[in-house]
Specification:
Layout (H helix, E strand, L loop, with lengths): L1 H14 L11 E7 L10 H14 L3 E2 L2 E9 L4 H13 L5 E4 L3 H14 L2 E4 L23 H14 L4 E7 L2 H16 L3 E8 L7 H9 L4 E5 L2 H13 L7 E4 L4 H7 L1 H4 L3 E4 L7 H14 L5 H20 L4 H10 L1 E2 L7 E3 L5 E2 L2 E6 L12 E7 L1 H4 L5 H6 L2
Parallel strand pairs: 1-3, 1-4, 4-5, 6-7, 6-8, 8-9
Antiparallel strand pairs: 2-3, 10-14, 11-12, 12-13, 14-15
Helix pairs in contact: 2-11, 2-12, 3-4, 5-6, 8-9, 12-13
């Protein structure tokens, strides 16, 4: 009987999921973003706060081990991001890195993370190249991507009769991806692209590009850029009176951008977004916690950092280990429903497919309180707005 009990005990131990294997007795999260430049408003210190809120929600521990947070400014430069991440992985023993405004920084870190067996969860690196030729099995593009953003906005405007489009595009990976993805949707909906201008990143003077777009007589002037570039372009379009004759459609707009532009200039604009703080009670409750720390409402990028961090830690807990491949496998098993993401499923190519929101900016008279900026026009099902799975990436993830 004693021998039988001993054998059963060994069997029970062998069946435990890696007996809570946590490397270095600590789980480390890294937020790598723009803390001082063009994208600091939409990510920056707010993303650090969002990650802290997720860690606090987990009680500051996972599998009985402490969770630590580190953060750094990648200056929107891939080489800086790569060097920081390599140091984090080798010396700092960071297990997961998130955020990444500018896709180029995410792509630079993804390859290093693949070599070092670490997880990468871009919240604001949005180009579809993350899911394409550059994909890795340890990457989860968490909040959204350029195709999903373009699909909702472009379809809505084309269906309103806005058939001809002119692009003003940031001349780097993200901008090119946003223009390409939007163009595919526009043409599929029987619209046309009549021209495009590429502007330096970052930009300040958009007058020549706006005048070319105005001269094209396109129904829609689409802004394939983000952050301060989008804010400056919309303000200058208003100064030229363009928005009274043509629709100016920013394809990536954060609530921080609308706040900077003002409802008087942004009113009526359509946009697609992964998160709006005033969508439901769950989003409002979490946003109030964020507001207490930051004195402003969260952007979708910042909310995405919270969701990515929270669900990464939940996956570590469920997997019984922080080993990267095991955590990714667990994330793919989960259905993501939190204060940010609705009906989310992580695909094999790294896309978190989930419901999106089609929003319209309110007129000043419609806004009843600070940060009350949007009308929710529709909930867009993830299957309807996300790109098809990339077969090559699907194979690479197995």
């Amino acid at each position: 009987m004693q021998l039988k009990g001993f054998v059963l005990g060994l069997a029970a131990c062998a069946s435990l999921p890696a007996l809570a294997q946590v490397s270095d007795d600590v789980v480390k999260i890294g937020v790598l973003n723009d803390l001082s430049g063009i994208y600091s408003d939409l990510s920056g210190q707010g993303s650090v706060t969002a990650a802290r809120l997720a860690i606090e929600e987990m009680g500051g521990k996972v599998l009985g081990k402490p969770v630590e947070l580190v953060f750094a400014d990648h200056q929107n430069k891939p080489d800086v991001a790569a060097n920081l991440a390599r140091g984090w992985f080798d010396q700092g023993k960071v297990d997961m890195v998130t955020d990444f405004p500018t896709t180029s920084t995410a792509l630079a870190v993804m390859e290093i993370a693949k070599q070092k067996n670490r997880v990468v969860m871009p919240s604001s690196g949005l180009a579809t190249s993350i899911l394409g030729e550059k994909c890795t099995p340890l990457t989860a593009q968490w909040t959204t991507n350029t195709y999903a953003l373009a699909a909702g906005t472009a379809r809505a405007l084309v269906k309103e009769g806005k058939k001809s489009w002119y692009f003003i595009t940031a001349d780097y990976t993200f901008g090119h991806s946003l223009e390409k993805d939007a163009s595919e949707v526009i043409k599929a909906e029987q619209g046309t692209v009549v021209g495009a201008s590429r502007h330096p990143f970052p930009g300040s003077d958009f007058s020549s590009f706006l005048l070319k777009a105005q001269a094209s007589k396109a129904d829609v002037i689409a802004l394939a850029n983000a952050g301060n570039d989008t804010v400056n372009a919309i303000k200058q379009a208003n100064e030229y009176g363009i928005s009274r004759k043509q629709v100016v459609a920013p394809l990536l707009t954060y609530i921080s951008d609308v706040h900077s532009i003002g409802l008087d200039k942004a009113q009526g604009m359509y946009l697609s977004e992964a998160f709006y703080w005033d969508y439901d009670e769950k989003s409002r409750a979490w946003a109030r916690k964020f507001f207490e720390r930051q004195k402003r409402m969260p952007t979708a990028a910042q909310a995405g950092v919270y969701s990515a961090t929270l669900n990464y830690l939940k996956a570590v807990e469920a997997a019984g280990t922080d080993e990267a491949k095991a955590v990714m496998a667990q994330l793919r098993k989960m259905t993501i429903n939190d204060a940010v993401i609705r009906n989310g499923k992580l695909r094999e190519d790294g896309a978190l497919v989930h419901d999106m929101l089609l929003l319209q900016v309110k007129a000043p008279a419609e806004s009843k309180a600070p940060w009350d900026y949007y009308k929710v026009k529709a909930v867009l099902k993830g299957a309807d707005v996300y790109p098809p799975i990339n077969p090559a990436c699907q194979i690479a993830s197995k």
